[in-house]
């Protein structure tokens, strides 16, 4: 089984995945939860240590602000990971009740823009080059604000942020169908995100969160279209059955994940030089967090490994000949291939455990941190 | 305009609507939020004072536990409201991470059952006759637990609760499509709720929350079917665009609310003797809470007033004759009728303000409580 | 009630609405169905005669091909209507089993392109300036064809059609979420349609069919966004509960139709000079067809009339002040206004019947054509 | 790999799958399509000959009416297949425009009931014991008819049919979310179907069509619940992305099919003595029909084979211990197992081709029937 295409493929993990998260009804807590960015990085480093796949960690500002960035970077270096994308947060402040970059009040827009300038500063200090913006803005009631006015304000706010960014910075602009507002969101779909990116310039690209679409949406089509426009900047991987469920990627519809990775392979976008940042963005509400992250990166790797097994020549032939079922079966043959053994072999050959989840359980790490991390406040969430 | 059908029609409001609520991302706070059940009842009483429609208040246990129930009832009496349904809570305790009445651990099922016994005791002390159970139990991952095993445990747990209830008690069993779990919930649909109610006995009935269905579900059909089975116990009214958005009832799809109320009128279920408890269950995340509740009860009243305008004889004739558009238009004629003036007249005639929302704003109540309610912790949420 | 904004507002009706249509299960027939384009125009003219709103009729090629276009135009003139948009058809030929403009076989793409050239010729002969393209292409199975390859072929095919069009021609490009293919469609969303239009040039614009979206999609947001991009070319109005149900516009969610028309009014796009073509595209499966069309144009007019009642100054003030419920209520006040009487008055003042549906029933037209149209084959459908 | 659980497991195929089918837009035709029930059985027998899985064929009345049932049975015997369920048809007659068993006109209800009596007669003559009723009744417009009145008529009609059936007959009652009507259907969900079955008696059971649910519905939950009620009579297998797409089962979401079959295995319902009839009900619009059916039965077999690999003891332990990810992974391990080789071995051992689709292509059957079946009218469709 040829798995060379996996070489160089990595997945970025989010610092907030190790903190507590939940639903509006309840955030469950567990012993050993990290209390600061240092401990989050330590947890994240476990994922990389055991899978060899996750050597970058996204930070979330202001949750992950530290006094001494050099010190945090040194901590990361020691752990074998790097600082990845910087995520802004314009949803956890009372001021943002009616929005941030789209708020009708210019003073609050100013505050939200300035927060992104702060994030750009963090990027300069950490060496991060990706500013990821998830815009939580939206409306709950028809008429509450002008849909058009909000787009115009958004364009203006983004322009200022983009102009404040450096030449080596990318702006990654996420879209989301609904939540935390329920009548409309101000970037509800890939089309709106793309229009803003096109207006901004070359360094602005779209983030595709696999959980942020209407029921029935063909996500791999969007992946294809954004690649075709050279505007796919990053993924936020996770799984959904109903809404933005933020479950472990690949747990709800592994065939969809495979189809997405097949579009990636078809465009050679799994290679590092493609510039696509493959990130996780999930909640672990009831399961253990580090095993949840390990399983997630393995699921993405597995889907990619299967996508690499597609017999591209046979597929192209069947497609050209209009052999509907034949072409479909070429794809399904790759999907039905059991790649678990080959992936375990590959890990072993690289000095990694065959079964990273079991290796984590055996490591005693969870017990150790539960014993050590006493007192203080456990870090909590975000999606 | 004949509005006699409104006589005796009332809507129950939830105590938790006046506390803070929000999404998993943020709970916004406001000055003057109530800090205890007494203050919640005071807020709720405003709704009734200004609309004459909302003379019962549902409580939520343990949030609304007080030391002296007689004293709370006296407070309610003074405010002109009564204690309505008692709502149990089996979702805000770490023990319930894997469920409550369905939990694989019998000790946790015991705890959840005992909590419902406590609620029955509250009912005995407050004179409430409705125990409302929203079961938050469910799974996030396929295989996580046995779907079948959980149904059997649920049946057993409910049996014990039902048997512990008094002859004048009703069990109102709610269903919900998803959330707070995302692979499955243990009472996902009206069919499952009904099966458990049928197994329990005559005093168990179904709660229909208008936000707890899959996209596209015809809710008035379910209303009709539950009435046909004599098993519609109560409504939890609210609005949704996407998921369980918990917006103000009637704000997202007023025509749907009208269709629901038309089925109610067709079965004479709006009359108090029908036993259907018309309740609100909403979040007010960004809007003012008391005006939000006032608007909600007015929206339900307006939909009912329109439904009462349906020319039933003309409708029956057109239906019998297979006049598709004619029958539809009879319904639409009622819907398009502007009942606002007649409702304002009716309120005026009963000594109520023509415009209850404006009357509330003019009353200075919000300012007063903001000044008075200083210190302490504002009550917070639940859906 | 000021209804001046209605002046000059018209709705285009489709020739195929008067022929037989149905579902995959059954096409019901009725006496008097039109058998040719002449009879379709006669039926369509009834709608305009009774409502004064529908003076243009879209044609569908090849269904509406005639030998002598001058003669058809003269027939239309005599009836008081004009030829509107020309609709191509690339779905009712065995050749199009695997697609038309995206087909893997270049010979079939050629045939499909040539069909559009034929449509452009019809436009030249009828004076129509709008070529409406609904692309039925898509896939039923993952892997069946290359999603990316199909986009590239589509771009190429559209380029050729656009280049073959005249300077006074517009290309109206429709998108559709699913059907008649179920794994993917080649223009599934407004984003894809817009990207192709942007690539083509100024004379290419997007068609928004109100039934062609995923569940939960905020359609008025898309209306706003397309107007903001100056790329909203036309509407295909109809109603849906579940899929592309093609019911009478305004029958399923009249509030949504009102919100859409409110965005139109907010952008002054209801005025003829906006260039937006307001068209119907519906099926009348079980109801009478001419009354169904009359009701449809009246529903659109009614929604526009209500949207014109929005107190824009009060709305802007409430929005600016962040008065969530106040702003929402300004909108709802317009929606709750009963405009039926004022619209009847306006019709009467213009020499039109107060109740166009009743006037049609009283006219005996249906009986007349049922008696006259004997023999021949009734025209059948398309959506 | 232990595949003993497959012994005795069979799938019933529908006679109409071999005729032409399509969407409302187009029914594509192909050379060699069967023209009568004899030729349909011949085609169906190919599926069984090559897979050993499909020895029963459902008939559809009146499409499959023949003069001499004994002769048709003899033809079936010779082909190695039997007559399976008898499907009624109350949707392809102009009389049924407003419904059949629910029609407001008693004469049409009478006709529809009598049609089912005819189907019962066919059962007596063919030895079939299953009468499958898919009720296409519904409404397109709110108000069009009384939802409640229709339920009462339905109950009455079904009662008469049930009473006319023999003691060895089963009534299989299907539900469907929407289509061919779009405002409501008269049996929209499993709850409604079950209520009617409970009212009818022991021999009435529910049919679960995998394509007949709202988006996001957890189908395996319903499977479990119906089994728990001893009321799961049959499956109609197929796949969907959006609506009732009727694609090849397992092609859209193979993991869902696996989860369904896992619930089946958990309840031992895959064994013939369970009485669950596993049927296909699909359209093959653009793909070859016999290969489409072969692939479908293989997909169901594959899903069952995987479900049989679940380590039930490990699963039960992990579930009991509340090991969320551990339990999920036990299930996923079975799902990720590649069973293709073992299934091919098993086929070979039983004298069947390792690759039934390839064997069919090699057999020349398609060419033969295309040459033979000249003249006449190809059988067409229904879903």
Structure description:
- The structure is a homotetramer of 383-residue chains.
- With 383 residues, chain A is an alpha/beta fold.
- The first copy, chain A, has one domain (7-309, 363-373): Alpha-Beta Barrel (TIM Barrel).
- Chain A is built from 13 helices and 10 strands.
- In chain A, the strands form 2 sheets. In chain A, strands 1-2-3-4-6-8-9-10 form an 8-stranded parallel sheet. A two-stranded antiparallel ribbon of chain A has the order 5-7.
- In chain A, strand 3 (82-87), helix 3 and strand 4 form a beta-alpha-beta unit.
- The longest helix of chain A is centred in the first third of the chain and has 21 residues, at 106-126.
- Chain A is globular and about 60 Å long.
- The mean pLDDT of chain A is 97.
- Chains in contact: A-B, A-C, A-D, B-C, B-D, C-D.
- At the A-C interface, helix 4, helix 5, helix 6, helix 7 and helix 9 of A face helix 4, helix 5, helix 6, helix 7 and helix 9 of C.
Low-confidence stretches of chain A: none
Q: Indicate the CATH architecture of chain A.
A: Alpha-Beta Barrel
CATH class of chain A: Alpha Beta
Summing up helix and strand content along with how strands pair, one would put the structural category of chain A as alpha/beta
What is the arithmetic mean of pLDDT of chain A?
97
- Please give the order of strands in the largest beta sheet of chain A: 1-2-3-4-6-8-9-10
Q: Give the distance, in angstroms, between the N- and C-terminal Cα atoms of chain A.
A: 37 Å
CATH topology of chain A: TIM Barrel
**Would you identify the CATH H-level superfamily of chain A?**
Divalent-metal-dependent TIM barrel enzymes
The interface involving the most residues is between: A-C, 59 and 58 residues
- Oligomeric organization of the protein chains: homotetramer
Order of helices and strands of chain A: EHEHEHEEHEEHEHEHEHHHHHH
Shape of chain A: globular
The overall number of domains of chain A is 1
Helical residues, percent of chain A = 40-55%
Beta-strand proportion of chain A: 5-15%
Number of strands of chain A: 10
Q: Treating each run of at least 4 consecutive H or I residues as one helix, how many helices of chain A?
A: 13
Organism (chains A, B, C, D): Actinoplanes xinjiangensis
GO molecular function (chains A, B, C, D): L-rhamnose isomerase activity; metal ion binding
Domain Xylose isomerase-like TIM barrel (chains A, B, C, D): 67-248
Pfam families (chains A, B, C, D): AP_endonuc_2 (PF01261)
